[in-house]
Amino acid sequence: MVSVRHKIQTDNEHPHIPPEEFLETRISLPLSKSMSARALIINALTSGSSPLPKVAECDDTDTMVSALRDDSESLHRTVNVGAAGTTMRFLTAYYACRPGCDITLDGSERMRQRPISVLVDALRTLGADIKYIGEEGYPPLRIRGKKLKGGELSLVSSVSSQYISALLMTAPAMADGLKLTLLGEITSRPYILMTLRMMRDHGVESEFYLNTITIPPSTYRAPSSPREIEGDWSAAAAWYEIEALSAGAVTIDNLVNDSCQGDRCLADIYSKIGVDTDWVGEDGGTDLLANPDADARANIDFSDCPDLAQYVTVTCVMLGIPFNFTGLHTLAIKETDRVAALKNELTKLGIMLDDSIPGTLRWDGRRVRITEMPVFDTYNDHRMAMSLAPIALYIPGIIIRDAEVVTKSYPGFWQDLSSAGFSILEANEEEPSDSEKEGDK
Ligand SMILES: O=C(O)C1=C[C@@H](OP(=O)(O)O)[C@@H](O)[C@H](O)C1
Ligand SMILES: C=C(OP(=O)(O)O)C(=O)O
Prior knowledge:
The protein has 2 domains: 2-30 and 232-432, Enolpyruvate transferase domain (UDP-n-acetylglucosamine1-carboxyvinyl-transferase, Chain, Alpha-beta prism), CATH 3.65.10; 33-215, Alpha-beta prism (UDP-n-acetylglucosamine1-carboxyvinyl-transferase, Chain), CATH 3.65.10.10. Helices cover 30% and strands 18% of the residues. The protein has helices at residues 33-45, 59-71, 85-96, 117-125, 161-170, 189-201, 233-246, 266-273, 309-319, 338-347, 382-388, 413-419, 434-440, and strands at residues 2-6, 24-27, 76-80, 102-106, 129-132, 141-144, 151-156, 178-183, 207-209, 212-215, 249-252, 275-278, 286-290, 298-301, 323-326, 361-363, 375-376, 398-400, 422-426. The structure holds shikimate-3-phosphate and phosphoenolpyruvate.
């Protein structure tokens, strides 16, 4: 639990930012965990020695690194992926097509509630041997690896793109390759394109025409120099939020404009709610420049970029920008039910969000005055902690419980916030009661 303050003092209703307390910082973001996960799986599927780029240093990537490292030592074991959904889904397909392995794949309590049947059904149709150990449709899984037959398959694509990426990366090793027809709305499409692009870097061509992706049987080839893993655009969201709320000077060192990460659309989203991006900023960095619009209203579809929703929601409520967000149907099966978590936590700021239409979140701009210092819960979700922390710019002294959750994707988050001028204090778990305080005297 940490208490987050910033030098900027405001009154809650009418935030003001004294010029002498100007926020100025230069940040180097953690590397993309999505690119890292793909680089690691593709590298493991590439025969011979393949140079591996520098990957992210965070819980989700560490889990994947150790699972794949231990893979050469034992084919029969239990692998626990903790809270890493991408790792869970990618390893399921990886082990299913790895002849000779017999793996029990498990995760955190929450992972056991995150559905995986779309992927398991698909892999079984392609010839895989996978059994549910506990509840049907959810981890843990027992996977006995074998050469998969592959072939033609139709798949519901509105639940998670991770199932699709997992199948695509293992497709070249299938006897007949894979012809995958995506049914329904495709969620998180840019992540699928990232997968295909990184496969192409390793010599595997594919065709994505209308809603069908075709990958012939083929082998991955090591590129002469591997694609560098970029700074994480999803992690940049906290800094766009900080810039929007502080109107300070935030420079980011390692953002790629022509990125293969779909969350690059962050720059476009924030240009509509008050932050411009100057790509050729100070000393080669990217400068974020607040450009507030008093009449802004935000209508945003998050189906291509679900990981940005929490940051943009908190930004809008703090800036008083009414919104209508759509494409949020997958948020219920992430680290927590993110819409429910946002609704709960923002009531602590006197804000009522409306999620009566499934997959949407709306706010009409009204708030009621709060009288208590908010103590925020984080629901084992790194993005709850990171999106709520910037509220300290308006309400110094907020408390964030279980602040260490950020290590899932951004272990240096609190350190980076400190260097930007926030003061992060360890808060006592239990406030002393009045009688205890009396007794101390
Ligand atoms: O493939 C990936 O690297 C990811 C895909 C997205 O998940 P969904 O496809 O389940 O939306 C995203 O939310 C997740 O953080 C990372
Ligand atoms: C949803 C996320 O991760 P995962 O699905 O990999 O657990 C995330 O990082 O926001």
